[in-house]
UniProtKB/TrEMBL annotation:
<feature type="transmembrane region" description="Helical">
    <location>
        <begin position="268"/>
        <end position="291"/>
    </location>
</feature>
<feature type="transmembrane region" description="Helical">
    <location>
        <begin position="56"/>
        <end position="78"/>
    </location>
</feature>
<keyword id="KW-1133">Transmembrane helix</keyword>
<keyword id="KW-1003">Cell membrane</keyword>
<dbReference type="InterPro" id="IPR001851">
    <property type="entry name" value="ABC_transp_permease"/>
</dbReference>
<dbReference type="GO" id="GO:0015658">
    <property type="term" value="F:branched-chain amino acid transmembrane transporter activity"/>
</dbReference>
<feature type="transmembrane region" description="Helical">
    <location>
        <begin position="303"/>
        <end position="322"/>
    </location>
</feature>
<feature type="transmembrane region" description="Helical">
    <location>
        <begin position="31"/>
        <end position="49"/>
    </location>
</feature>
<keyword id="KW-0472">Membrane</keyword>
<feature type="transmembrane region" description="Helical">
    <location>
        <begin position="130"/>
        <end position="147"/>
    </location>
</feature>
<dbReference type="Pfam" id="PF02653">
    <property type="entry name" value="BPD_transp_2"/>
</dbReference>
<feature type="region of interest" description="Disordered">
    <location>
        <begin position="1"/>
        <end position="21"/>
    </location>
</feature>
<feature type="transmembrane region" description="Helical">
    <location>
        <begin position="98"/>
        <end position="118"/>
    </location>
</feature>
<dbReference type="InterPro" id="IPR043428">
    <property type="entry name" value="LivM-like"/>
</dbReference>
<protein>
    <submittedName>
        <fullName>Branched-chain amino acid ABC transporter permease</fullName>
    </submittedName>
</protein>
<keyword id="KW-0812">Transmembrane</keyword>
<dbReference type="GO" id="GO:0005886">
    <property type="term" value="C:plasma membrane"/>
</dbReference>
């Protein structure tokens, strides 16, 4: 099997053989990085407007969910808005009509996203590359049409308005975006932890093998399609969890949540931060959400022009995205081989 299955992830260099101080240093650095990320999540609503902080957290989980599929399975989906938006509508409807506490409403939306993803995944994963992307986009557009036409349930073009925040009668959480952020943050962190566990599990290593050399994975007895369907469903569930939290945070669900532009935006966030790193999606969400908020606050109307220009600049200057490029630079500084070079070298040695 490809040597890439022995790495911590496609976004990190392989651990030094034999362990020792270098391996200990990497382990300590990983824990310090996780601690820094947790601190950033906790202080975020203190330094920026709490609703914007909540948007960053939700979009970050959405990008991590897509990266699980794109970076580790090699499948580019242009239909993930179906899971983000479908979950948003389900979470909004359960909160409106059943009065569920928002964590349960968001989890209900995530469950719906996973149920929706299963048949889509079964029909899509037999394709790859642009064909997979177009099939997922087609299914997402079908859901967009259904949501738009089913006005009695979804509100059509008017969307779902007045989605309430229920949280066991705690008024501070239900009325104040600052406290809502901290009540919703555990859901976001749980989703990110689950994605991390998937990547650093035997399942994740087999997933990378199916991405790098599916023919060899099949020869070794792995059911490539089954692994791809499973990761597709997991990715959809995490995207749905993010979409449910986002919808309840805003108190409104619009057609924009199931539009193809939403799928394009999350792809932008993932590529901008760095594919196959998990952390890259978080970085991409921070950059784009803050940039959009600042431009909107200033009254600038051509937000897409600016974000598109930033995306082009990053792709041209940072081939592996912001986080991937920084990680490789730090690896070189420590005298380690960057992940991309390590993978290429390993594949080259196996081809001799």
């Amino acid at each position: 099997m490809s040597t890439t299955t022995e790495t911590d992830s496609p976004g990190t260099a392989p651990a030094p053989a034999g362990g020792g101080p270098a391996l200990l240093g990497r382990t300590r650095g990983r824990w310090l990085l996780l601690a820094a990320g947790l601190v950033l999540a906790l202080v975020l609503p203190w330094v920026i407007y709490p609703p914007v902080a909540m948007d960053i957290a939700a979009w970050a989980l959405f990008a991590v969910a897509l990266d699980l599929l794109l970076g580790y399975a090699g499948l580019l989906s242009f239909g993930h808005a179906a899971f983000w938006g479908g979950s948003a509508y389900v979470a909004g409807l359960t909160a409106l009509h059943w009065g569920l506490p928002f964590p349960l409403a968001a989890l209900a939306g995530a469950g719906f996203a996973m149920l929706l993803a299963w048949p889509i995944g079964v029909l899509s994963v037999r394709r790859s590359g642009i064909y997979f992307a177009m099939v997922t986009l087609a299914f997402a557009q079908m859901l967009y049409f259904i949501v738009n036409q089913w006005r009695g349930l979804t509100g059509g073009e008017n969307g779902l308005q007045g989605v309430p925040v229920h949280f066991f009668g705690l008024e501070a959480v239900e009325t104040d975006a600052f406290f809502f952020y901290y009540a919703a943050l555990p859901l976001i962190l749980l989703g990110m932890w689950f994605a991390w566990r998937v990547v650093h599990s035997p399942f994740g290593r087999v997933l990378v093998a199916t991405r790098d050399n599916p023919a060899r994975a099949r020869a070794l007895g792995y059911d490539v399609e089954r692994y791809r369907i499973l990761v597709f469903v997991i990715s959809a569930g995490l995207a749905g969890l993010a979409g449910g939290v986002f919808a309840i945070s805003h108190g409104f669900v619009s057609l924009q949540e199931v539009a193809w532009q939403t799928s394009g935006k999350v792809v932008l966030l993932t590529v901008l931060g760095g594919i196959g790193t998990l952390w890259g999606g978080i970085v991409g969400a921070i950059v784009i959400v803050i940039l959009e908020d600042q431009l909107a606050s200033s009254g600038f109307e051509g937000i897409g022009i600016i974000t598109g220009s930033v995306f082009i600049a990053v792709v041209l200057l940072f081939r592996r995205g912001i986080w991937g490029t920084v990680s490789d630079a730090l690896a070189r500084r420590r005298g380690e081989r960057p992940a991309a070079e390590a993978v290429s070298a390993a594949d080259g040695e196996e081809g001799l």
